[in-house]
Design a protein that fits this description.
single chain, 318 residues, alpha/beta, Rossmann fold, N-(1-d-carboxylethyl)-l-norvaline Dehydrogenase, domain 2, 8-stranded mixed beta sheet, 13 helices, globular, binds nicotinamide-adenine-dinucleotide, binds 2-acetamido-2-deoxy-beta-D-glucopyranose
Length: 318
C-alpha cells in the first residue's frame, strides 16, 4: 500500500483502550491519529505504544504483516481535535465512560468531519441512542465495543443506533475484519449488548451457588476455567449443544430441553451483590487472592501472559 492511499483513522482518548485500538489499527496498515484533551497525553501514549509494539515484535507476537518500525511510523499524536480529525474516514472514540462527555465529544466532532465519516464509540455500558443523542446525522454512528485487552481478545461487538445505515455497519465490519479483530453484529441495541448480558447470567448463577452454600468460590471458578472455559475458547454454547447430541441441535433439545427448562426454572431472583449476603463471598475470595495491589497485579500479569499464549494457540489452530 503506498502512503497516498493509506486510510486514516482518528482515535479520540489515549487511555488503555485508545492505545489498544491504535495498536490494532496500525497492525492492519492504517494511519492512526491519536487525540487526547489532556495536553501531552497523546504523545505519551505513543511512547507507551512504541515500547509495547517493540516488545511484541521481540516476542514474535506482533500482529499484522508490517514490521514494528513501519507500524509505528503510521502513528501521530495531536492536542488539537480538528487537526486530529483531518483526513480521517473513521473515528473511534475512547474517552471516559461518562454519558455527557461522550455526547459532547460527538457533537463537536460532527461539525468538523465530512458527512461520510463514520463515528464509532468504544462504550461498554451506554446504548447508542444515548451516546449519539446530540448528533444530527445518526445514520453514520455506531458502537464498536472491544474486550480488554483487544490485542489478544479479538471480539468486537458492533451495535447500531436505531437510525444507523446498513452500509455503515458493513464498512465497520470490513474494517474490523481487515485489522484481524472478530466483529459480531447486533441487529438492535440492548442494555449490556451481548457479551455483558451473557457474562451477567454467568456471574448471577455463580454468585447464587456460592451464596446458597452449594459450592466454594475456588471451585465455581474451576467449573469455568477447567470445564466450560476449555470449550468456550474455541466454540460457543450453540455449537457445543449441536455437537453434544448424535443428530445435532434439534436432537439435543429433544433429549435435554425439558431438563434444561426444569433447571432454569429453579434459578432464583437476582442475588444480593452488595449487602450482608455478599460479605462472606468477598472474604472467601480475598483469602484466595488478597485485594492489595501486589497480589492483584501479580494475578493480572499472569492473566495477560496466559491470554497471550492462548491467542497464539488459537492462531495456530493446532
Ligand atoms: N478498560 C476496559 O476494560 C474497557 C473495555 C471495553 C470498553 N471500554 C470503554 O473504552 C472507553 C475508554 O476506557 P479506558 O479504560 O481506555 O479509559 P481511560 O480512563 O484509560 O482513558 C480515557 C482517556 O480519555 C481521555 N479523555 C477524557 N475526556 C476526553 C475528551 N473530552 N476528549 C479527549 N480525550 C478525553 C483521558 O485523558 C484519558 O486519556 C470507555 O468508554 C470504556 O467504557 C473499556
Ligand atoms: C448522513 O450520514 C450518511 C452515512 O454516512 C451519509 O451517507 C449521508 O450523506 C449523511 N447525510 C447528511 C445530510 O449529511
Ligand atoms: C432428565 O432428568 C430426569 C430426572 O428429572 C432424568 O431421569 C433423565 O435421565 C434426564 N434426561 C437426560 C437426557 O439427561
Amino acid at each position: 500500500m503506498s502512503s497516498s492511499d493509506t486510510k486514516v483513522i482518528t482515535v479520540i482518548g489515549s487511555g488503555l483502550i485508545g492505545r489498544s485500538w491504535a495498536m490494532v489499527f496500525i497492525s492492519g496498515g492504517y494511519s492512526v491519529k491519536i487525540y487526547d484533551n489532556q495536553p501531552g497525553q497523546s504523545a505519551k501514549a505513543i511512547t507507551e505504544i512504541r515500547k509495547q509494539v517493540e516488545e511484541l515484535e521481540e516476542a514474535h507476537m506482533l500482529r499484522g504483516e508490517l514490521p514494528a518500525a513501519q507500524q509505528l511510523a503510521l502513528l501521530s499524536s495531536y492536542d488539537d481535535l480538528a487537526q486530529a480529525l483531518e483526513g480521517a474516514y473513521f473515528v473511534q472514540e475512547c474517552v471516559f465512560e461518562q454519558l455527557e462527555v461522550k455526547q459532547s465529544i460527538f457533537q463537536n466532532i460532527e461539525h468538523v468531519v465530512g458527512k461520510d465519516v463514520i463515528l464509532s464509540s468504544s462504550t461498554s455500558c451506554l446504548v447508542p441512542s444515548k451516546v449519539f443523542s446530540k448528533v444530527q446525522n445518526r445514520s453514520r454512528c455506531l458502537v464498536s465495543h472491544p474486550v480488554n485487552p483487544p490485542y489478544y481478545v479479538k471480539l468486537v461487538e458492533l451495535v447500531p443506533h436505531p437510525e444507523t445505515a446498513a452500509a455503515v455497519m458493513d464498512t465497520t465490519h470490513v474494517l474490523m475484519t481487515k485489522v484481524g479483530q472478530a466483529p459480531v453484529l447486533l441487529r438492535k441495541e440492548i442494555d449490556g449488548f451481548a457479551l455483558n448480558r451473557v457474562q451477567a447470567a454467568i456471574i448471577a448463577e455463580s454468585w447464587r451457588l456460592v451464596q446458597d452454600g452449594i459450592i466454594s468460590v475456588k471451585d465455581i471458578d474451576l467449573v469455568m476455567s477447567e470445564g466450560l472455559g476449555m470449550r468456550y475458547a474455541f466454540i460457543g454454547p450453540m455449537e457445543t449443544m449441536h455437537l453434544n447430541a448424535p443428530e445435532g441441535l434439534e436432537d439435543y433439545m429433544k433429549r435435554y430441553g425439558e431438563n434444561l427448562t426444569r433447571v432454569l426454572t429453579s434459578f432464583g431472583p437476582v442475588p444480593d451483590f452488595t449487602g450482608e449476603g455478599s460479605k462472606s463471598i468477598i472474604k472467601e475470595m480475598c483469602e484466595l487472592i488478597p485485594s492489595d495491589q501486589n497480589h492483584l497485579s501479580a494475578r493480572k500479569e499472569r492473566r495477560d501472559r496466559l491470554l497471550m499464549c492462548l491467542a497464539k494457540q488459537k492462531k495456530e489452530d493446532c
